[in-house]
Design brief:
heterodimer; A: alpha/beta; Rossmann fold; 6-stranded mixed beta sheet; 10 helices; B: alpha/beta; MetI-like fold; 2 domains; 8-stranded mixed beta sheet; ABC_transporter-like_CS (chain B); ATP binding (chain B); Peptide ABC transporter permease (chain B)
Chain lengths: ~260, ~625
């Protein structure tokens, strides 16, 4: 069997508990999580607020350091301080797109950052690539010299996706990328993600609390609760034959009258 | 299929234009510019040597020949000394401020960004600096270094470093946790690039505000040290030393002290006015009208009340809304948030309002009890009748009598609507005692009973909990308990489950459904989620860009949507259990409600659009009992 693209084994992370004068109980956000993403597949991670899914995502890309456990990229353990090469391969899309764009930088400068720091492209190559990226996410090149506050949530998320694509990564970790968006915009972004995956053979780790969205997009799904993965299975199995009682509760909780009335 | 987004919101008025509207700041700017211009031009002006003594003319009064502003005790020309002295004072104050800003901001950025022990060491050093009374510290520094302008400058810079360091450090700590800093790290940027490229530009407003508000202070301090003889040394003139020299002659020749005093006053007032103006411009909390306090009820434009409803209210309706129009007036733009909305609500019925953000669904709900903030919101037309009584134009006390009593609200974010300093039990009690003549003890018993009904475990104990001690689902139950407190006829729920986890949402929906059945309460339920609508609502109305585009019973609308927007909105929502169903996104964005296109508002995104769609205003077509669609092609298959 070939190596998984990115593999995490027995990750733990807790926060707090290190006051000078008081000993507070640390919050154990992630406890013993192991996952593996294969090339070109989408792994969905569903869970409710406080389940530790965002912390897991941030550990995968290197925004948080795990307390213990290992992360392997194609079989090689990655260093605590991620290398530039790691960032070239693994990128991240934030939940709140607008807050992930520096309000004082133009879109052009925001998109040029990874091209400059990760790929070391020349100025003229950067110019070309930035326009390519805008076309990929269906934004007009005139928008490049505007500032983030001029964009709606959906447009800002496209820019976030363009930035993640800039260094031609193989894996993108998406932390609730559509949950702040209106449903008509959400569908645009989901279709865009599908298109980009087909075009570039990308692998996704897709974090969401929305089961229907995860079902539409993902090949395999892991269900998280209280920092642990309670069930992990291929999509069809998980949604048709959930085994863990919590997964069953989750599925039963979705208000779903539309499922039997919609004929579209 | 490709969704090339085209529209961008209109830009806000430019920074300079907004500064220009602040008349005080402009006045301050003019004063400052005049003084600064004189000081800069001093060497070019035909002024006598400020240090040339002319003893025969000593203490010459103002307007005497050859000495426009008189002469001092050595016969030196006051006008010349004032201009040169202002030049010195401004320069010293400015250089001291820049030095303090650069050193203080650097300390603040480094402490805030590095955190841990670096932060501890630097900020404790700053605390020590602040522990001395600033004037004593400045005096001590000058005493150690010896009197002189340069040493006074050092002293003032050092004394003012803490102001910059503390302000900048506080903001840096917040900025470094921003998502865009994380994004910069993932883009391969190192600490130094992040500091200079991501954090520093966002700190500039803070530095500018601190600078503009402390500059005047620093010029005063320079003058103070010179006044005490520790700054400018004779014969050099600066405003403080001139004031000091004039002090002993105050009774004989008051103009010698008065003139530098006036100049100091002018300069400091000018700087402070400009500083306040700049702060109002750059401070984000003030930029969005944070200083304007909305009134207790939405303003109703007077012609709104007289406008009579077109078709009469349904006889059995408890709430009947006709042609409601709520607009927002912002920066000379009119935003038609709600335009021509009509509906009836019957007892025990659940009516859903579905729409995306900006469709006007929340503003519709808030308008019913005058809860839209004014400014900028104004109800400009229509009629709202509750049990036959017109609510628009109702005096505030009568409106307050209805609010939370006969008509109750449940909001989306219970944490934002509950008072964090009051126990949840007390908040329910407050709602009860406001409308019912009962004692506190009776109200508390009632409150605990309500908490039991919304299934909060250990209600008696939890009544003394504060909102932050409850989970999100429990907080929303408290919100529901408050809404139920006075046994209302109508509950208006604005996305009450959107912020909740799906398992909690299911429980809250079930609770609302049970309560409605038990008490025959009418429910106006606002949501963007068709799944929730199908579970709860009898009838649904779909809103788009401020207007109702479709109404009907939930079953009919979901089975056979007759407006293209409804149909496409349903098609772009992934449905659990149908992963193979192709998602069909709606291209583009909803139109801005301050620049609505003529004709159908959805025309630009519609796949069935024809030329006729873009002409005139499209009426809500009647499609049978309780069913309507604002589409000229609604009858076509």
């Amino acid at each position: 069997m070939t190596h998984a693209l990115l593999e995490a084994a027995d990750l733990h992370k807790s926060f707090g508990g290190d006051g000078w004068f008081t000993k507070r109980q640390p919050v154990h956000a992630v406890r013993g999580v192991s996952i593996a993403v294969r090339p070109s597949e989408t792994l969905g991670i569903v869970g409710e607020s406080g389940s530790g899914k965002s912390t897991l995502a941030r550990m995968l890309v290197g925004l948080e350091t795990p307390d213990s456990g290992t992360i392997r990229m194609e079989g090689h353990a990655v260093a605590k301080r991620r290398s530039l090469d790691f960032h070239r391969q693994v990128q991240f899309v934030f939940q709140d797109a607008s807050s992930a764009l520096n309000p004082r930088k133009t879109i052009r400068r925001i998109l040029e950052d990874p091209l400059n720091h990760l790929l070391g492209l020349t100025r003229s190559r950067r110019r070309e690539r930035v326009e390519e990226l805008m076309a990929l996410v269906h934004l007009r090149p005139e928008f490049l010299d505007r500032y983030p506050h001029e964009f709606s949530g959906g447009q800002a998320q496209r820019i976030g996706i363009a930035r993640a694509l800039a260094a031609k990564p193989r894996l993108i970790v998406l932390d609730e990328p559509v949950s702040a968006l209106d449903v008509s915009i959400q569908a645009q972004i989901l279709l865009l993600l599908k298109k980009l995956q087909q075009e570039f053979g990308l692998a996704y780790v897709f974090i969401s609390h929305d089961l229907a969205v995860v079902e539409t997009l993902c090949d395999r799904v892991a269900v998280m609760r209280n920092g642990e993965i309670v069930e992990q299975a291929p999509r069809t199995t998980l949604f048709s034959q959930p085994r863990h009682p919590y997964t069953k509760t989750l599925l039963a909780s979705v208000p779903g009258g539309l499922a039997d009335t919609a004929t579209a | 299929m490709t969704a090339t987004t085209t529209t961008l919101p209109a830009a806000r008025p430019g920074t300079w234009a907004r500064f220009g509207r602040n008349q005080l700041a402009v006045a301050g700017g003019l004063i400052l510019a005049a003084v600064a211009l004189l000081a800069i031009a001093a060497p070019l002006l035909p002024l006598p040597d400020p240090n040339a003594t002319d003893l025969p003319n000593r203490l010459a009064p103002v307007f005497s020949a050859g000495h426009l502003l008189g002469a001092d005790h050595l016969g030196r020309d006051m006008l010349s000394r004032i201009v040169w002295g202002t030049r010195v004072s401004l320069a010293v104050g400015l250089i001291a401020a820049v030095t303090a800003a650069v050193i203080g901001s650097t300390i603040g950025i480094v402490a805030g960004f590095c955190g841990r022990w670096v932060d501890g060491v630097l900020m404790r050093a700053i605390d020590m600096l602040m522990a001395f009374p600033y004037l004593l510290l400045a005096l001590a520094i000058v005493a150690a270094l010896g009197p002189g302008l340069l040493n006074a400058l050092f002293a003032i810079s050092i004394v003012n470093i803490p102001f910059f360091a503390r302000a900048v450090r506080g903001v840096t700590v917040g900025l470094k946790r921003r998502d865009y800093v994380a994004a910069a790290r993932l883009s391969g940027q190192g600490n130094l690039t992040i500091l200079t490229g991501e954090i520093l530009p966002n700190l500039l407003p803070v530095i500018v505000i601190t600078f503009s508000t402390t500059l005047g202070w620093m010029i005063l301090e320079t003058a103070g040290l010179s006044f005490l003889g520790l700054g400018a040394q004779p014969p050099q003139a600066d405003l403080g030393s001139m004031l000091g020299e004039g002090r002993s002659l105050l009774l004989v020749a008051p103009h010698i002290a008065l003139i530098p005093g006036l100049v100091i006053l002018l300069v400091v007032i000018g700087i402070n006015l400009v500083g306040d103006g700049i702060r109002d411009l750059v401070d984000p909390r003030l930029a969005s009208g944070g200083l304007v306090r909305p009134g207790p009820a939405t303003a109703v434009a007077c012609d709104a009340i007289r406008q009579q409803a077109g078709n009469p209210a349904a006889p059995d309706a408890i709430l009947s809304v006709r042609n409601l129009r709520t607009h927002f007036l912002l920066n000379e733009e009119r935003y038609k948030a709600v335009d021509d909305v009509s509906f009836d609500l019957r007892p025990g019925e659940c009516l859903g309002i579905v729409g995306e953000s900006g469709s006007g669904k929340s503003v519709t709900a808030l308008s019913l009890l005058g809860l839209v903030p004014t400014p900028p919101g104004v109800i400009v037309g229509g009629s709202i009748r509750y049990r036959g009584q017109e609510l628009l134009g109702l005096p505030l006390p009568k409106l307050q009598e209805l609010r939370g009593n006969r008509i109750a609200f449940i909001f989306q974010d219970p944490l934002g609507t509950l008072n964090p300093l009051m126990t949840v039990g007390e908040q329910i009690v407050e709602t009860i005692t406001r409308h019912q003549g009962v004692t506190h003890a009776e109200a508390l018993t009632h409150a605990i009973g309500l908490m039991d009904r919304v299934r909060i475990p250990n209600a008696r104990d939890r009544a003394s909990a504060y909102p932050h001690e409850l989970s999100g689902g429990q907080r929303q139950r408290i919100g529901i308990a408050m809404a139920l407190a006075n046994d209302p006829d109508i509950i208006i729920a604005d996305e009450p489950t959107t912020a909740l986890d799906v398992t909690i949402q299911a429980e809250v929906l079930k609770l609302l459904q049970d309560l409605r059945r038990e008490r025959d309460t009418a429910l106006l339920f606002i949501t963007h989620d068709f799944g929730v609508v199908s579970e709860l609502c009898d009838r649904v109305m779909v809103m788009y860009a401020g207007r109702i585009v479709e109404t009907g019973t939930t079953a009919e609308v979901l089975r056979d949507p007759r407006h293209p927007y409804t149909r496409r909105l349903m098609a772009c929502v992934p449905v659990l259990g149908q992963p193979e169903r192709a998602l069909d996104a709606i291209p583009g964005l909803p139109p801005a409600v301050n620049h609505l296109p003529p004709g159908c508002h959805f025309a630009d995104r519609c796949d069935r659009v024809i030329d006729r769609c873009r002409i005139g205003s499209i009426p809500l077509e009647d499609l049978g009992p309780g069913r309507s669609s604002r589409c000229i092609r609604a009858f076509e298959p």
